[in-house]
Please model this.
Amino acid sequence: MSFYDLVVKRFSTRSFSDKIVSDEDINKIIECGRLSPTAKNLQPEIVYVIKSDYGMSKLKKVCNMTYNAPICLMVCADKNVSWKNELEDGYDSYEMDATIVATHMMLEATDLGINSVWVRMFNSKEISKEFDLPRNIVPVCLIMIGYIKNGFGPSKLHDIRKNIDEIVRYL
Model:
């Protein structure tokens, strides 16, 4: 499948079956995240794989958008490691780096025939407290992964896209 076809195929899955995702596939997904580009290649990302009943029950206490996914990849970043831009006061690459990692993992999941959805409907402080994360580790997003439940597909909004001339400017 071409990269373009992969991007077209991917959509946010909001209803997962209980079919098991193999550890081999989870490792491939995480490896694609590990190979993602980050600012100055500092690799501040930390990915927590939540797949136990205990871990998922803790997650559901602080996030109600798990969609019955059997696995959550909690993508975090270490602010002690991330790049700070000395030319712009306060700029820190941690969120951008973790986002690139998350995107690569979602695309690899799609390539493997595994569905995903990006979730950011949570309070970072609550998740950090629930999972006892160190202060320098910041939750950036949750990637729910698994196989789509029969009868479900993309949202009605999935194919609504702005025209190219609305989003591109040539200078």
